[in-house]
Amino acid sequence: MNEMTTVTDTAAQIATGATPARAQPTLPDAQIVTQVTHWSDRLFSFRISRPASMRFRSGEFVMIGLMGDPHPETGKQKPLLRAYSIASPSWDDELEFYSIKVQDGPLTSKLQHIQPGDEVILRPKPVGTLVHDALLPGKRLWLFATGTGFAPFASLLRDPQTYEDYDEVILTHTCRTTAELTYGAQIIDEIRSSEILEELIGEGFAAKLRYYPTTTREESPKMGRITDLMRSGQVFEDLGVPPLTPETDRAMICGNLAFNLELKELFEEYGLQEGANSAPREYVVEKAFLD
């Protein structure tokens, strides 16, 4: 499936006489799926209802999932849960998530088939390191993502504090193909044209946002791994900014393990130190993410 397809809510199905999404047994901590969008044969996003009491900081993640298959002998089922960054902003009435599809994955092999009206398990206890509280004050914020690592930044980029705290916000997103950049590119377009955000944050806020997408396998306007482009100085030349320094720059990383480790090594060369909620510094890494 190369073209984006969207599944709308069950009300439309009922109105047209179509068969509504299949009923699911009540799950523990159940929330209702409201929308599913398939961006490619590898990627999809979905929205679910949000508990009225749930609060989270932009950039945090929660555990979500489905019930596993019954045990062949006892018939008992256990929940299959995985850490998912919340892609929606903290002021949204619903929760959005962005996921890969793994055909033989214990969870995503099932999760990729959810439809509006289905239920998913949500453990509403958000945690995470990709939060503003884990960084010292600075002038420029860098957000480095690969693949579905874009998700927490989709939340942070719609948080008023992001633009209040920094003069410039630079998002780099590296994927294998241009199709895998579609979700992120659409979010960026929506941010730049959002009247809601302009009202929340202030007129002209989007001028602070810089977007730097790259691909590693398919031809695109900018090819290459972001770490290679940093070492060569190309990214800084393209954006017209100096290399990172601990005096002015702050960074967040959300990508695969090899990417995280390589960037951490680069940051140490720049003089940046890793921070945490309890000890804010110049950069933070989301260790729970696996792409």
Describe this structure in words.
The structure is a single chain. The protein is built from 9 helices and 12 strands. The chain is globular. The longest helix has 14 residues, at 257-270. It is α/β, with parallel strands linked by helices and 291 residues long. It is 23% helix and 27% strand. Strand 11 (249-254), helix 9 and strand 12 form a beta-alpha-beta unit. The strands form 2 sheets. Strands 1, 2, 3, 4, 5, 6 and 7 form a 7-stranded antiparallel beta sheet that branches. The protein has a 5-stranded parallel beta sheet with strand order 10-9-8-11-12, sandwiched between helices. The model is unreliable at 7-25 (pLDDT under 50).
Characteristic terms for this protein:
alpha/beta, seven-stranded antiparallel sheet, 9 helices, 12 strands, 23% helix, globular
Radius of gyration: 20 Å
> How many helices does DSSP assign?
9
- Which of globular, elongated, flat, extended, rod-shaped describes the shape? globular
Main sheet overview? 7 strands, antiparallel
Could you give the distance between the termini? 20 Å
Q: Give the low-pLDDT segments.
A: 7-25
User: How many strand segments?
Assistant: 12
Helix and strand element order: EHEEEEEHEEHHEHHEHHEHE
Beta-strand residue percentage: 25-35%
Helix content: 10-25%
Structural class computed from helices and strand pairing? alpha/beta
Kindly report the average pLDDT value.
90
